[in-house]
Amino acid sequence: MIPNIARVALPIPLDKTFDYLITPNDLPIVGGRVQVPFGRQRLIGIVTALTDSSEFPIEQLKAIQKVIDKAPLWMPPLFDLLKWASQYYQYPLGDTLANAMPALLRKGREASQTTLKFWALTEAGKSQPLNGLTRAPKQAQILRLLQNGAVSHDALLSEEVSSTTLKTLANKGWIIEQQQQPKSQNWQKQFSVTEEKPRLNEEQALAIATVNSNPEFGCYLLEGVTGSGKTEVYLNLLEPVLAAGKQALILVPEIGLTPQTINRFRRRFNVPLETVHSGLNDSERMAAWLAGRDNQAGIIIGTRSALFTPFANLGIIIVDEEHDASYKQQDSLRYHARDLAVMRANKENIPIILGSATPALETLHNAKMGKYHHLTLTKRAGNAQLARHGVIDVKGLYLNAGLSAPLIAEMRKHLNAGNQVMLFLNRRGFSPAIMCHECGWIAECHRCDAYYTLHQQSGELRCHHCATQRPIMPQCEQCGSTQLLPVGVGTEQLENQLATLFPEFKTVRIDRDSTRRKGALENYLEAIKNNEYQILIGTQMLAKGHHFPNVTLVALIDVDSALFSNDFRASERLAQLFIQVAGRAGRASKPGEVLLQTHHPEHQLLQSLLHKGYGVFSQTALVERQQAMLPPYTHLVLIRAEANDSDTVCQLLQQIRGIFESSPVYDQDCCVLGPNPAPLARRAGRYRWQLILQTPNRKALQQILSVAKPAIQLLPLAKKVRWSIDVEPQDL
Ligand code: ADP
Ligand code: ZN
Ligand code: ZN
């Protein structure tokens, strides 16, 4: 066959490739970019195949305008992974590939290194004694960072080093600016371990030996509480990999990419390290991508999207805090980076380690089924101790913006002692259950074993299982009280109320919104460390990766909205949050205390969590999931749709439901829930509804979807309504 036609995946929302003619003196390559005419546009796409036949008459095909790459952008393991992800997550291949490229490559920039600004020590800088700079810790930090060779300007900025400090050092003649081809030096040759290693304990040694006994693919769950030495295990696992000249990929949650984390790896090894995260600009992102592909980085640490970095010679993958929700992408290609990382390790035939103090139930299930090896670290390094905990039964108590009097009193005690207090809110459930504040009774569907969900807009209760609707009952069906409240009410006003309750103390709220700006989180964390704020309000993100030695009281003020959420993962998230904060509050000299507010202190999951720990909690929760036919025992697909008119959205989802149910593989084990209003039922004037398809069989699910999607696309309503498919959704 002499190929004269190229199949090209274009970045457009269509599930197909397009055929173009090849010019014989400018041959494209599979996996490389080409520029092609598309309607009136010019698009950059990826060649997925070369062939000599097309379903279209050859004289109708247009020719490729320009071949951009002479080599494929991805080696087969990663290219295959992307193709697989496109299918599995039902996202068009062209868009998937575009998603996995740095923006500059999407725009057609050449896939090779350009020069970057670096900083290096001068002779004078090298001879500076670091301990002479105790009054200029930032300067000392820079000198320390440069001791193993030049570091790029961008990398230094991501270490919380400011341009001004760099200038000061340059003026002193201690450091000098260089334009470098990001050092094309051969790091493998000069690899060394650059700090003293602690003596491993038995469990660490066993974990390391187990992983090292098999250099090929294997997935290892490393379960150990905070401070049990997981990072030390990662470092030890990296050592032989790097020594053999291979690279390492470390994935961390969005909030986990702290200078402390990065520095631990930098201090230990003399290898170039790159970070990949949402704060990078286009050229930084491109540089990291190239550093991986061209073997110019030994270690890449990054958030979710770092998974798509190409590597010349990848030797190991580590996913830290593998249970973290930020690994799931919530729009466009809705992938789960942990799951795809396991798949990538499999295709690359290398080991992967999933680390967590509180593994996801999915991961524990996989370990139980023998798919993953389960390694545990039970001992905590040092003498840190777990915080004490207590439960406040708030039934019938007056709640001031969600705070009970006993909690307020306890807060005052800790604040007056000069300590800090941290309050946790759950991510607010927008459609909560409804509960009696006097006795804790929760309105339940009479036909199903499920709680009613309150839909505030319509003022109705609705069962998401059988779609029964009814008005809110006037009284509690158990005690007759008229104090029926949505679970978790009142917390919106919390911040204002705190200013009134504790005028002499300053409050800061840390969440995704308040920390969106680059560097904002670091500034807050620094201010908290300096005791500029005494009361910290946060969501789950505050619990991760940070130690607050002066926080001696942590309160989870709204446990019920997690226990009775219609998102079945909410209780798992609550448990993970509890373990995380209990492990971090206070320090040896100032032991911490964790308080939980609930109407249901007797709740089985809560009891097992508080008295038996995460291990028993997770086993109990898994049994519940199995009985309720929920993941990981079944697989879900979430279809969301929104439009200006509620009926249209609902109608479309009814039609989609019909398409699912008419699939030949749809049997009595499958079920469809909905259409139901989405948790945020109305956003920016648009009505949002959802439909959930559930089956115990992953293959059946994929079969149903692959037939259903083109059928849905043909529906006239599907063109009027914005809709999306989320395979294995994380938030319901
Ligand atoms: P994790 O990642 O599980 O939170 P780390 O690896 O960060 O735990 O370890 C917690 C602390 O204990 C760190 O300061 C680390 O240097 C130290 N540490 C870890 N393993 C050992 C060990 N075997 N001996 C002494 N100290 C250790
Ligand atoms: Zn029902
Ligand atoms: Zn009641």
TrEMBL record:
Give the range the annotation lists for the signal sequence. none
Which Enzyme Commission numbers does its entry carry?
5.6.2.4
- Give one Pfam family: Helicase_C
Q: Which CDD domains would you find in this protein's record?
A: DEXHc_priA, SF2_C_priA
Cofactor dependency: Zn(2+)
List the SUPFAM superfamilies. Answer: P-loop containing nucleoside triphosphate hydrolases
Residue ranges constituting the Helicase C-terminal domain according to the UniProt record: 471-630
Keyword entries, A-Z: ATP-binding, DNA replication, DNA-binding, Helicase, Hydrolase, Isomerase, Metal-binding, Nucleotide-binding, Primosome, Zinc
The note on the cofactor says: Binds 2 zinc ions per subunit.
Q: Which reaction does it catalyse?
A: Couples ATP hydrolysis with the unwinding of duplex DNA by translocating in the 3'-5' direction; ATP + H2O = ADP + phosphate + H(+)
- UniProt entry tagged with the keyword Iron-sulfur: no
Where does the Helicase ATP-binding domain start and stop, copy by copy?
A: 211-377
Residues annotated for Zn(2+) 2 binding in this entry:
C445, C448, C463, C466
Regions annotated as coiled coil? none
What superkingdom does the record give?
Bacteria
| Stated family | Belongs to the helicase family. PriA subfamily.
Could you tell me what this protein does? Initiates the restart of stalled replication forks, which reloads the replicative helicase on sites other than the origin of replication. Recognizes and binds to abandoned replication forks and remodels them to uncover a helicase loading site. Promotes assembly of the primosome at these replication forks.
Quaternary structure and interacting proteins, as annotated:
Component of the replication restart primosome.
**HAMAP family membership:** PriA
Name of protein: Replication restart protein PriA
Q: Which organism is it from?
A: Photobacterium angustum
The gene it comes from is priA
